[in-house]
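Quick start: what a row looks like.
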Amino acid sequence: MKRALHSLKNLDGTVGYLLLFVILIVVFLQIMSRVLPGNTISWTLEVSEMLLGALIWLNISVGIISGAHVSFDLIVRRLPHKAQKFVVLLNNAIFIAYLVLLAAFTVQVLDYYLVLGAKSTILQISMFWVRMPILIGCVVTIIRLCIKEYRIFTDKETKYFATYGSEGGV
């Protein structure tokens, strides 16, 4: 059971590695099609752009888990522990509110894509599926942030920032 929970916990990171590998293959195909005589493979650029967007949105939560996401922590690190805790909780709450708003707007945009039947230029993939990783990334990150907020609030997590040179740090 613990092993299954650990696998679920790291699912977004695993999907990220898989997406990165697929992007590598697709870009390699694009390079080879330009180097070798003949026509270039036109769909590779579109696929690599779509996958890169998905990679970014699906792996924002990985930065949340490790504490390595971008933050202005130079001043906050110098505050007393209780003040640090308050600032981190406030920061996470603001981030959650932003992601909820972004997810709501993304749902509206996805609805428009379905109504209009918008498709990508070359592969004719529905833009609904191209932009869906934004919503998935928002939801997964909100879940991770809520878990982190709970852990910080209940003092189960006392390390608020990644440290340089440590595992998962920046």
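That is the whole record. DSSP finds six helices and no strands in the chain. The two ends are 31 Å apart (CA to CA).
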